[in-house]
Design goal:
The longest helix is centred in the middle third of the chain and has 9 residues, at 87-95. A hairpin with a 3-residue loop joins strand 9 and strand 10 (123-139). The chain is built from two helices and eleven strands; from the N terminus they run E-E-E-E-E-E-H-E-E-E-E-E-H. It has one domain. The chain has a seven-stranded antiparallel beta sheet, covered by helices on one side. By secondary structure, the chain is mostly beta strands.
Length: 194
């Protein structure tokens, strides 16, 4: 693991009313997808079709975010506190999908705001949220949700020529991890019995 403090992923609006969600737990993985459209051109000289490029779609980012206020309800000293409603966090994401009259298009239709997904200073993704699903999985006896899994998909709204930030730098790796990698010849599974 890199040394230093854990940087939390964030999602925030970049236009209109400021909304910001700091992820309680960083994503364990994410998927970036992009596609180019190629179409066949009739060709009577070879068996393989000639292809012509007809366009590109913007990148899509898909991820799951875990929100849990029940696990965070302790004060760090062993004293239990009342858990907070997890919707305090997830509702901010929901608000980012709401149509806002502030943004008028040429056809006089309103739209939701653009957002920025960021994870430290090395990873930024300008986008709009196209789909979101919130699944609540743990409740207090009164029915208040305290745990949720949010699945979201973001569509690129500003072209990213690279997925690395221009000022991206390599991170320092702890001596303990370097030793572990060196002693197992690069296979960390041996360290953990897998």
């Amino acid at each position: 693991m890199p040394d230093g403090p854990l940087i939390k992923a964030r999602i925030q609006t970049i236009e209109g009313p400021h909304l910001e969600v700091e992820c309680l737990f960083n994503p364990k993985e994410y998927l970036i997808q992009r596609s180019n459209s190629w179409g066949p051109v009739e060709n009577s000289k070879t068996n393989a079709s000639d292809l012509t490029f007809s366009g590109s779609s913007g990148a899509k980012l898909s991820l799951q975010l875990f929100f849990d206020t029940y696990l965070r309800s302790g004060d760090g000293k062993g004293a239990a506190q009342t858990p907070q409603d997890v919707r305090v966090y997830t509702d901010q994401l929901w608000q980012m999908m709401n149509i806002q009259g502030v943004f008028k298009t040429e056809t006089d239709k309103s739209r939701p705001p653009r957002v920025l997904f960021s994870w430290g200073k090395n990873w930024l993704f300008n986008a709009v949220i196209t789909t979101m699903q919130q699944q609540y999985t743990l409740f207090t006896p009164s029915g208040m949700p305290v745990r949720a899994m949010v699945t979201a998909e973001f569509q690129e709204s500003l072209e990213h020529l690279s997925l690395m930030a221009a000022n991206s730098a390599s991170e320092a790796i702890s001596a303990g991890l370097r030793t572990a990698v060196g002693s197992t010849y690069g296979d960390l599974r041996k360290s953990y019995g897998r």
